[in-house]
Design a protein that fits this description.
Blueprint (H helix, E strand, L loop, with lengths): L8 H7 L26 H9 L13 H14 L3 E5 L2 H12 L5 E5 L4 H10 L6 E5 L4 H7 L4 E7 L11 H10 L3 E5 L4 H4 L9 E5 L13 E5 L1 H16 L5 H12 L1 H21 L3 E5 L9 H7 L6 E6 L2 H11 L4 E2 L9 E3 L11 H7 L5 E5 L5 H15 L1
Parallel strand pairs: 2-3, 2-4, 4-5, 5-6, 10-11
Antiparallel strand pairs: 1-7, 6-7, 8-9, 9-12, 11-12
Helix pairs in contact: 1-10, 3-10, 4-9, 11-15, 13-15
Amino acid sequence: MSDLKSQGFATRAIHLGYDPLQEQGALSPPLYLTSTYTQESFEAFEEIRSGERQGYVYGRTRNPTQALLEERLASLEGGQAAVATASGMAAISATLFTILQSGDEIVVDQIVYGTAFILFTQGLARFGVRAVFANFTRSETVAAAIGPDTRALYFETPANPNLRLVDIAAISALARGRGLLTIVDNTFATPVLQRPLQQGADIVLHSATKYLGGHGDLLAGAVVGGKAQIEAIRQQGLRYYTGATLSPFTAFLVLRGLKTLELRVARHSESALAVARLLRRHPAVADVFYPGLPETAGYEIAERQMSAGGGLVAFELHGGLAAGRRLLNALKLARIAVSLGDPETLIQHPASMTHAGYTEQDRQKYGLSEGLLRLSVGLESLEDILDDLRTGLDLSI
């Protein structure tokens, strides 16, 4: 079905790589529940193992259900290939373990997911890899952090949890000029709103647990990029170093999520913009951070590289952490939870939840306020979300 490769995003998300008539008319792709694969001959096994022909040997490396998911993810992100993993952290780990070795350095944005921060500051150090942190909102600070042992630049945009924005094209151009790889976590924006590879990045990461899966019922990750790079990550980072293989059933669920991704992200974004506007007007709110608001720092970057603001809003209350605690406890529809991208509206306090891995000193150094809250706007009726927030904000004063 090669003609599908030039068709629209939603069409590819639903149809690419699968013809029901070749699978007994089954409209949904079959689920391959097998750990190993038999071969027709010794020679066939050797050809598959050497890469001379396509095929499957063992489920830790690849599965037909997983392969279909990878084909669609690569297409949606505009990459040559993709590899699916058991979680977002598995995607990060498999990538870093493949491209880095003892003595290397990686320059990382100051604001990243809390568990990733621990991997950079504690995990990689155990293997002789040094993470150097810089403010990626300023290209000159990134350039100054690059040394002779630097191999890659790593950042999220919008960043977790404060949604600050990094200019993908500018940082990628800087990296390319120094012969470095650019790695971008695109979990928050999804390929619906932003495609880093088209702006010069080399590798894109996802926690597919979030918007790609979209239903809060799975853990998954993905890496997208050039064919040679992805194959190296599959054969080394996935197969040998982590073994963090995505289960066939989870791949099936993410494929299901992709079918409605464009519709869901549009609804998340529409509702989040309305929420951000409400927060901006409410007297209890000190500041709001949302890529779709002109008042948000970096808005002009979002205008260039994103087609909408996404489904997440970060904000601070005048009353700080005490007011935030009152708000979280007063909300009825929005649930206190650390994930995002689900149909349910979720709210959390990063300093004590997702970013507790940052020390208090690190949070102060990098501008992660104790009073910051992150809201993942769900798919409930918008007026119900707004009413819940109004009531909670009134009680937080």
